[in-house]
């Protein structure tokens, strides 16, 4: 594979963490009018993980981050910056990245959050790449996608509560050593803010501040137009994949494994048909975790690495889409 861009940064280490508590479809069928059969048929999801009481988004982010640092052969003190992609920060501010810094026992390094929903990990990957290539102060940047979606779900809304779960995935990004051909070859990002209501939390921001009325109307919970988001996702997963392949004069035959955002098996099946790519080229773990938003891609990537499906020299396509609406893809040659 010869890509248009030099692989100037690479994924030096990966790690992930999911909470121990499992919520099965059976469990949910006791809370809302649904069934295991409906959820599996319409989404492919069988169970998801949820944080225990008191387990914060930054806690699972730190757990994933520590594993990524270890897998990179580093110590937390080697980390020069932290960027967290999340839509479920511990607090609106300060950033969850600052909480991660504190829990890792680090000081002074820059820390910030990025909010690009389920595309969050690809956004933070591109930002880490930019920082590494333009500022000599950075050598190892910890990027994390972490979500405690259980905290923003309306557990009485069967059309959304069956879809999501909690989890965190992380990576350490560093400059590729001189002469090496592995690394992040290209990243493509996009967004369309024209229909924010398709997938959002209406209240609690500065536009519609939290009040007794917003609380009573459940406007502090995630709202989604499932049908429209499904159509968008089925279209954009193909568009983002083809865009980055075309830009690099590549075809799907050059790709060894696709790590797609884990939202709904039918979205991935639609992409498989549209791109004429066999389903076994897509890594799938949504049956066990549901949609973990910004954590989805890095958790899947970490599992693909630890199960041996991603190996040195492999060409990996990451692709994601989500609220905003946002989308993105990345081409990585593994080391
Ligand atoms: N259990 C049982 N029935 C359910 C249900 C559930 N959990 N959720 C919805 N239904 C019902 C609906 O009420 C509807 O009933 P009705 O026909 O009597 O009104 C029926 O099932 C069909 O609903 P519909 O919305 O047409 O189902 P769908 O096939 O579109 O699947 C989603 C719904 C949410 C699974 C699907 O739209 C989807 O996956 N959307 C994208 C979600 C996503 O990926 N979001 C994140 C993107 S990052």
Task: From the structure above, extract its key features.
2 domains; binds coenzyme A; Peroxisomal Thiolase, Chain A, domain 1; 22% strand; 11 helices; alpha/beta; 335 residues; 4-stranded mixed β-sheet
Overall shape: it is globular
Largest beta-sheet characterization: 5 strands, mixed
* Secondary-structure element string: EEHHEHEHEHEHEEEHEHEHHHEE
CATH architectural category of the largest domain: 3-Layer(aba) Sandwich
Small molecules bound: coenzyme A
The N- to C-terminal Cα distance equals: 14 Å
Tell me roughly what share of residues is in helical segments. 25-40%
Number of domains: 2
Number of DSSP strands?
Answer: 13
CATH superfamily of the largest domain: Thiolase/Chalcone synthase
Q: Main sheet: which strands, in order across?
A: 1-7-6-4-5
Helix tally equals 11
- Supply the CATH class of the largest domain: Alpha Beta
CATH fold-level name of the largest domain: Peroxisomal Thiolase, Chain A, domain 1
What number is the mean pLDDT?
97
Computed over alpha carbons, the radius of gyration is 19 Å
Low-confidence stretches: none
